[in-house]
Amino acid sequence: MIQSLQGIGMTSSRTRERMINRLMEQGIRSNKVLDVIRNTPRHIFMDEALASRAYEDTALPIGYNQTISQPYIVAKMTELLLASSGRLAKVLEIGTGCGYQTAILAQLVDHVYSVERIAPLQKKAKDRLWSLKLKNVSYLHSDGGWGWPDYAPYDGILVAAAPPEIPEMLLQQMAVGGVMIIPIGKGGSQQLQRITRTENGYEVEKLEPVIFVPFQSGRK
Description:
- There is one protein chain.
- The protein is α/β, with parallel strands linked by helices and 220 residues long.
- It is built from six helices and nine strands.
- The protein has a domain at 66-210: Vaccinia Virus protein VP39 (Rossmann fold), CATH 3.40.50.150.
- β7 and β8 form a beta hairpin.
- α1 (13-25) runs antiparallel to α2.
- The two termini are 24 Å apart.
């Protein structure tokens, strides 16, 4: 049973507003991103035992050695993805996870193509997004390193796990002018990067240190 979308106590609108104020203090400027995060019930994307911690600024376990990213990281990656242009038509998400980042993206872009290698996680995410009536998302159970070539090229790609280097298949699936937001690196030395595809190649910006689960191949 999906937990209450409205939330009470530590999942109430007052608690959410504290999270939004914290995001603004951390430098998130996009009102569109802040409004969507404010109105998306983060607590339904995790087990009920952890729901009371949903609006803390921390990553939390979602099973299968995966995590839901802290609110700041979700907001920052989304803001960076959207900064280059107006509304994006097609966005590829690598790592559906619990579906929270997917839900944020789905309210800000025309269509999200979301790839997840762990089938039970993706099933839960689909159910949650359906409960929020977010229907502009397509799902693929596959190795994220392959991307989803059937619908390429993409205006934006957002990667929610850290490979040691940028996967070549994902670079090939970017539209000219498209942007990829991706953490790169191993262990404690990962860095968030923004890659922009130009007519002549790719521009890489190194942004800030981050901590993500490692990028893994195969399907489960």
